[in-house]
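Sequence of FAD-binding PCMH-type domain-containing protein (Gossypium mustelinum).
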Amino acid sequence: MKSLQLSMLLLSLVLAALLSFSMGALPHEDFLQCLSLRSNDSSTISSVIYTRNNPSYSTVLESTIRNLRFNSTNTPKPLVIVTPSRTSHFQATIYCSRKHGLQIRTRSGGHDYEGLSYVAKVPFVVVEVNFRSVDVDVENRVAWVQAGAILGEVYYRIAEKSRTLSFAGGVFHSIGVGGFISGGGFGLLFRKYGTGGDNVIDAQFIDVNGRILDRKSMGEDLFWAIRGGGGGSFGIVLAWKLKLVPVPATVTVFSVSRTLEQNATQLILRWQEIAHQLPDEMNPDVSMFSVNSTQDGRKTILASFSSLFLGTIDELLPIMQQRFPELGLSSQDCSEMSWIESILYFNQLQNQPLEILLNRTFRNPVGGQYYKIKSDYVKEPISETALNGLFSRLSDEEASSAIIIFMAYGGIMDRIPEDATPFPHRAGNLYKIYYNVNWQEQDNVNSQKYIDWSRRVYNYMTPFVSKSPREAYANYRDLDIGSNNVGITSYTQASVWGRKYFKNNFDRLVQVKTKIDPENFFKHEQSIPPLH
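Predicted 3D structure, token representation.
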């Protein structure tokens, strides 16, 4: 009898423990109750909340997962997704997340290359910044753009009112404006007008205490930090006031491709010498990838030399004949169009109506939907021997869908100080390197071999790129270069990756973080830490 009583007692203790664990595993229940109490209109807040038992949860979560590498059954999922329809929903979400120990991941376009805007290793909430209005003032050459708008929406709304104004934004039309500017913002016009962050003149921002701040009330230090210091570190940007810049009624695009057998190596060597010195109105790059040779079917490398030019074909050709005659550019290689049509061109959406820029559905014109990205900066031309080693690696089996792009610097970037914004990659850079290895769904079980390939190429390139630090672009997020602990992040640990993204600007970012978010509520694997 005693043994039966003892067994029953043990069973009840186990059940109580299980129940306690079960209740403890659902911290979002208290969070949801808090949201309801904190919101002025509980019926409204309930309509923008998605928990895992909501039939629309997966659809909402997956709607802007741009790298499907982070959409597996093993990928950590948010306890709750909040899609605010008013500013008070953001404030309530921040308050209740802090109160109940949940982290926040803020997502606008979903293009974070390591998925940090929708993945975390601790219990977390995803906040979808889906405020999307674009208010264009042509007369004053400014636009208020909410952070959830995509670049395509910005370009389209500007073009509705003027075909000779634009914003110095990125190439891919489905990138969210919020994250793009938060990481600096590199794009087609950066050699003429600087980065996206260089062209922001005000912002609307929510801090950790729920205060809504503009440039004047936040102060110049915080305004500086949010224009390139990386998303998810300081608070949530609701909107940006953008400076609009002039573009000509007619622009020109060109692309000339050559294989190794067609002297591509010598052309790349020459390109390295002159690309950064080309006029500010150009945006030259070289894309390299493996193809089958037409001669014998063996693999070779195809190098595609392309650029946007802010002007006509007749204006471009004399420049190229003088500066880069080896390329042999002719009028047949060029196409004239409007600026907004060039956005379609670079998104491989030629002959589509402009309204396709409003389509938020992702279509990556470079590679597949499973990928690993890395970046480098180059200060001195890479030798022919070094290039041959790179080409050899591009011929590997794992690189069948890889692409490497050299993106020329120079132009106005040489004339903007390194500390103008947190984005420090200015004078002294010949070009940036973009490494992209991608693969298809059926090969995702072998994803590690592709990631390993990207790391081998990156290691191979070490002697030929920037040093102390080896620089990287914050918007090409790469956790291989360092990451924070899940718990307390040390300054020393964060400076490993932080100096690669921000160089000496990292210290000022830490000072801003310490002042605006001393308890480090807004954090992720590569967020700026406060000083403790």
